[in-house]
Amino acid sequence: MNQTEMELLYTGLTKEKAIELHRELWGWLAEHPEKGKNAWPKWIFNGGHVMSASCLCFACEYALQHMMNISSPNKYSYFVAEDLKCTVCPFIWPDPRGCQIDEDGDTTAGLFEEWANCFNKEEKIKIAIQIRDLPIREEVDD
Prior knowledge:
The chain has helices spanning 3-11, 15-31, 58-67, 78-84, 111-116, 121-132. 43% of the residues lie in helices and 0% in strands. Helix 2 (15-31) runs antiparallel to helix 6.
């Protein structure tokens, strides 16, 4: 990632770049099931060159930037955008309401929460791969 790509996290992360970085991060997590997202060596705070992202998630960062896009006639405050960002997540999660919600509406049991709370190495790898390979939500644009 070069300086221009680093600036994207502050000036406009594209959907394409968010997907690329998401897949790279979750691929690394599948290869390192004992690690958390904050351990990814490419984060700038770990000596890498990738600036931090909302929730250490490129999908969340993209969605938040999308909601707060200053060129949009419907600008949102940060707090409103934070609450609505799942509606413009570039990925299709098993529950359409987002990564932290399961089919029954439990906000602590979604696919991401399942990964975060998993202690079985093989299962954690499978979940990380599932998150890495989430289908793309085509109706969400840059």
